[in-house]
Amino acid sequence: MRAEDPQPTALDLPMADPLPEETQRYFDLCAEKLGLIPNVLRAYAFDIAKLDAFTALYNDLMLGESGLTKLEREMIAVVTSSINRCHYCQVAHGAAVRALSGDPALGEAMVMNWRVAELSERQRAMLLFTEKLATASHAMEEPDRQALRDVGFSDRDIWDIASVAGFFAMSNRVASATGMRPNPEYHAQAR
């Protein structure tokens, strides 16, 4: 956190003080594993019930059991965030793609133009679906779902793709509306 940015957003919503013991443990774990407390968590910490709801859904979608790999879920997050031009999520999840893939160029491609990345047929189909969901969800039809099945995604996987993309559509709007600032540490990670 930069000294001049004590708040993670442009809103005057200070974190609960003191944080509940369980929340403090979670923040300590983030600091230990990530080397930072993501500003999105600090932003939600003005209301612990909202923070708990956000983290429960995030952890389920991004870390829970799924036929999607963690990298694939992060790719969906970045492509959705790129289409929505969400600065916070492009920076934070672009760093996650770089770290999980071990490929800085892939992280940059996901943020700038995912179509230039070297992707498997499965990943390309997943991101075409993600892109359409972000830009024209009303136009989704059975052929869109079938295209995913044709490259090996199950119906449960399709649910997970849609859920991750939908979660980030919401998160992107909240981050943009509140002026959420990415942690500066993200910019240098996995390069």
SSE diagram, text form:
Layout: H1 21-34, H2 39-44, H3 48-63, H4 70-83, H5 87-101, H6 104-112, H7 121-136, H8 142-150, H9 155-178
Net shape: globular
* CATH topology category name of the largest domain: AhpD-like
* CATH architecture label name of the largest domain: Up-down Bundle
SS-based class: mainly alpha
Overall tally of domains:
2
The total beta strand count reads 0
- CATH domain class of the largest domain: Mainly Alpha
Please, could you describe this protein's structure?
- The chain folds into 2 domains: about 20-65, AhpD-like (Single alpha-helices involved in coiled-coils or other helix-helix interfaces); about 70-190, AhpD-like (Up-down Bundle), CATH 1.20.1290.
- About 65% of the residues lie in helices and about 0% in strands.
- The protein is built from 9 helices and no strands.
- It has helices at about 20-35, 40-45, 50-65, 70-85, 85-100, 105-110, 120-135, 140-150, 155-180.
- The protein starts with 20 loop residues before the first helix and ends in a 13-residue tail after the last helix.
